[in-house]
Amino acid sequence: MEIVYGPVSSWRLGRSLGVDLICQKGKVCSLDCTYCSLGRTTELTTERRVFVPTERVARELREAMKKVEADIVTFSGTGEPALALNLGEAIKVAREISGLPVAVLTNSSLMNREDVRRDLARADIVIGELDAPNEEIFKRINRPCEGIHLADTIEGMKKFRKGFNGKFSLEVMCVSENKDFSKEIAAIARTIEPDEVQINTPLRSSPVRPLAPEELNAIKKDFKGMNARSVYEAKKVEVKKVVGLKKLRQLKRKRKANSVVGSG
């Protein structure tokens, strides 16, 4: 399998069966985040197009569901899922085939577009991203494609949150360059009003070092009252059987004993 992989043991979602709607050799994304475990973005773009036909997604999902047990189907992988023009259609198909809830991990940079918000709204869970308090740090950490700005990204998340009936979580990836701005980031997060805030740090292979548990605990205090939780506090479920080992290796998900783990 090249599109469907896992399930992986996710600290946020349980046994998460991944779907890579980008599925390229390199990373196709609207951002080039310094901490990304996949390394530099190969194609930095905001153009939406079909990378993988929905029929192929359906075929692999049917096969995977015969072989593995999962709690949720998650759209993630080798780039920004919202760049896939058939995201909304693929979410619908994934739910019908699996009978499971569907999540999307997005960097939120395209949420200011109505067509993207419409597609994302088909999911049960959407996990957005906010790593910076201002444009300068946004450019330094997230290294956006030309035309993407933090203010537009925040506004897009606000619009999406107001019209979304599912669960909207906000991930804050904490690294050395933004750890001293947690109060400012928390203030922005309050205006978005997510259902929860996920305080994360790069625990998978990454170009930058992860923050220590005590550093994340200090940051979490700034998100008091926002249903915040830290990656270091999470318990992971065991995964006994997986599909898509080649994809798992590409995504740098390490296999240990009878489980596949990661910080997803």
Q: What features would you describe in this structure?
A:
The protein has 264 residues and is α/β, with parallel strands linked by helices. It has a single domain, classed as Aldolase class I (TIM Barrel). It is built from eight helices and twelve strands. The strands form three sheets. Strands 1-2-5-6-7-8-9-10 form an eight-stranded mixed beta sheet. A two-stranded parallel ribbon has the order 3-4. A two-stranded antiparallel ribbon has the order 11-12.
Describe this structure in a few short sentences.
By secondary structure, this protein is an alpha/beta fold. Helix content is 29%, strand content 19%. The chain has a single domain, classed as Alpha-Beta Barrel (TIM Barrel), CATH 3.20.20.
Entry keywords:
264 residues, alpha/beta, TIM Barrel, eight-stranded mixed beta sheet, two-stranded parallel sheet, 8 helices, globular, disordered C terminus
